[in-house]
Amino acid sequence: MTTSTVVYQGELRTQALHLQSNNQIITDAPTDNHGKGEAFSPTDLLATSLASCMLTIMGIKADSMDLDIVGTKAEVTKVMATEPRRVSEVHVSIYLTQTFDERTQKVLEQAALSCPVAKSIHPDIQQVVNFHYAE
Q: Is the CB of residue 50 less than 8 Å from the CB of residue 44?
């Protein structure tokens, strides 16, 4: 079953449609690559997908442990390389709204680090992940 369709809109913009939900995403080329930068770039989505996947898998694990991690936030920084132009690093800082015991923290962190997107990104792309707990 097809997951999505993507249509080139012109002026370095695409419109992606998620077929199951009918949600749409617009992408623009970034300003450092001839674009307007008015929306996520495709490489922004790659980096952001990593954080989104990590939070989702942490949420699944937290639910199974009867923990509440609502409000947990991730900040994402994408680092580009040249020749070839590609994502070379993705930095993800995850901020949890509370502190858990050391065992629970380890379980949640392992869940994040083993998310499907993390396991799908090429090993040449460095993933730098830091976890921060409320004090």
A: no
